[in-house]
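in:
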């Protein structure tokens, strides 16, 4: 298969060449938590006469660049939307291919990610995944649980509404009384638990939709939407998105006088 032969994170370094320093000066206020809707793999492939799966492989390659850049630019948590609960409706070949990508990424990249201090977490339901993949995901999450250089949340078989439903079910199973329910408590029942909400959500390929991604957590997130297809969303544009974010005034519904 095409794809993840090189290491996913290479050798992550915080040291930068001076030319790089000029090109990407340190950001005064980088977002702590960035979410990415990696859209446009299919159209990227179609425009090149390639298959949709080749588009997803190119998207996986791009993930490598964005992981490295996240460490370099000071992002501490990255949440990627890799497979939604709605993606099961796609052609079986494409669904199988996306499952295979997840498995290959774990098989080939886990040790390197671990060595580079990346903590992997899974957001979503494990139930519908095949037992082999499920086991690998659980192992990857467990192996990397003490790493803190970069937290990579992989939303796989994830849906925001589904997440809220499972949170409510668990609240009920825990027999929490209505008076005890607060926004903070409900947040803790989401897959993201006590993690900070996303500060910035990036969506590639020009669609203006949330597509069921972190709909609870993104209440006050800033959005950056670009027409660029995900496989072409490189380090320069990532920096631009983070730079734009760092200039925005966040008011959380209040007013800054
Ligand atoms: C949306 O593009 C993209 C996806 C549904 C899959 C994204 C997955 C990857 C980039 C692979 C990385 C995965 C892991 C597990 C690390 P689209 O197919 O909807 O594009 P289109 O709208 O142009 O058709």
């Amino acid at each position: 298969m095409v794809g993840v032969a090189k290491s996913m994170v290479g050798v992550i370094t915080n040291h930068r060449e001076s030319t790089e320093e000029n090109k990407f000066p340190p950001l005064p206020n980088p977002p702590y938590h960035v979410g990415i809707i990696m859209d446009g793999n299919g159209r990227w492939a179609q425009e090149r006469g390639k298959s949709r799966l080749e588009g997803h492989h190119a998207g996986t390659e791009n993930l490598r660049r964005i992981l490295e850049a996240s460490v370099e630019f000071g992002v501490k948590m990255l949440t990627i939307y890799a497979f939604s609960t709605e993606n099961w409706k796609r052609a079986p070949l494409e669904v199988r291919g996306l499952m295979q990508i997840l498995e290959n990424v774990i098989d080939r990249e886990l040790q390197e990610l671990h060595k580079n201090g990346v903590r992997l977490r899974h957001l979503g339901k494990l139930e519908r995944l095949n037992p082999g993949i499920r086991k690998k995901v659980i192992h990857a999450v467990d192996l990397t649980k003490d790493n803190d250089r970069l937290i990579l949340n992989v939303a796989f078989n994830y849906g925001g509404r589904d997440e809220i439903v499972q949170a409510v079910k668990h609240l009920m199973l825990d027999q929490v009384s209505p008076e005890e329910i607060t926004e903070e408590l409900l947040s803790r029942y989401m897959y993201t638990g006590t993690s900070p909400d996303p500060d910035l959500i990036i969506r590639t390929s020009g669609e203006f939709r949330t597509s069921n991604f972190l709909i609870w957590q993104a209440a006050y997130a800033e959005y950056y939407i670009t027409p660029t297809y995900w496989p072409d969303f490189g380090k320069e544009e990532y920096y631009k998105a983070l730079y734009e974010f760092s200039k925005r005034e966040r008011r959380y519904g209040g007013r800054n006088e």
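note: The pocket of farnesyl diphosphate is lined by residues 38-43, 56, 59-60, 63, 82, 87, 98, 101-102, 105, 154, 156, 205 (CB under 6 Å).
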